[in-house]
Amino acid sequence: MYGKSGGYKVGQEGENVVLCGANSYEQKYYFNEEFNSLPERIKQELKILCVLYTEDVGGSLVLEYNEDGTLEFKVSSVEGDYLFDEIGSVLKIKQYQNEKKDLLESLEMFYRVFCLGEKLEGGEEDT
User: Fold this and answer.
1) Which of 9, 25, 90, 113 could cross-link to 2 by cystine, CB 3.0-4.6 Å?
2) Could you tell me which residue, 15 or 88, shows the higher pLDDT?
3) Distances from the Cα of 90 to the Cαs of 86, 96, 111, 115, 125, in angstroms?
């Protein structure tokens, strides 16, 4: 299902790769073990972000990388869940994108370099 690149698994073309997520219905948190090399502080911050989102808004939230390495927030809810706050969901994601901008950009850079094999911009040239 996945091809390997730099020791990390990356999705097939057109397939997103899940980083983490939380589900308010099952009260569970998931972290993709393929990214276990991330610092513990980052993993804890992701857990707090996802769990607080589902506690505040309901439904489920998944953070996943698309094929170009952009980290996306994927939200879903069970049909008929009247407690799910759609407006609150949009506002909470915008809040996270502003407050956690450095974290999210660092995670995207990590994925692009270590999973997709891209070179860092402004890095040293090979001599």
Assistant:
1) 9
2) 88
3) 7, 10, 25, 29, 42
